[in-house]
Amino acid sequence: MAKRTKKPAKEKAVTYLRVSTRKQIYGSGISRQRENLYRYARAHDIDIKYDYIDDGVSGTLPLIERPALKAALEDCIADSIKLLLVENTDRLGRDQINTEVACQTFVKAGIRIIITQDDYEITAHESPNAKFIRTVMSALAELNAAMIRGRTRIGWLKAVANGWVPGAPRAGKRIGEEETVVMLKKLCGRQPDGRLLYRAQIAEEMNRLGYRTRKNRTHPNGRLFVERNLDVWLRTALDDRTLEQYRREIKFRELQAKHRQQEIDMGIRDKDGVLLEQYRKKKKPRSK
Known about the structure:
The chain is an alpha/beta fold. It folds into two domains: 11-157, Resolvase, N-terminal catalytic domain (Rossmann fold); 178-274, no CATH class.
């Protein structure tokens, strides 16, 4: 009778993925890294338990300042996982010292690191030649990061010298935002009934009319326009003098409302804000 043999259990592992900037989060960096890591795991019969992603975290930061890498270390120790998969050396870091410290921290905790792109393993029993190659690769990653920063700065300075103004255009200055600016000017002026709207009322009216902000980010209250982002638009919709006049009038109205509320609390006015009879100034009769 043939004996049944058990298949050897797959080795458990976690993956570490990283991109340096917020813009790369929406690119193909994370998906590419994950695809390569899982392909390597399938080829080598490795069971990936968790993915740890540092999105928008610089590779020059130390281990303690990288939330995902720090969590990977703590969870590997807690769950007795002895393998960390990383696509490339520069995903571990672009600073030679910080990268080496991170590697040694994992190795001393009994966790091996495999660089899947080069099929290279970092362990406690690493040969001197392998350690030398790893050190050179870390130094090259740091050099590459420094060169990228240098090229970016040179291009930035050249663009500024040619008249480029850093930063995104002010709210209301992009094509298609003219109608929003016109409506804001209308709402900031005196209304047909003579009222002057508060910023919260202007924001509420803009949301009711269906106008959209530049990034269309919904705030916790479910609205696009709120008082905080409305100021940015008002600085474009109104010139400095008109904006200052609007703010002054709004401040005066707020102080007036506060003073009226204090008089209601003190019993000088009734709940409707009408001054009580005993506090009204009596007109002196004109002398004949």
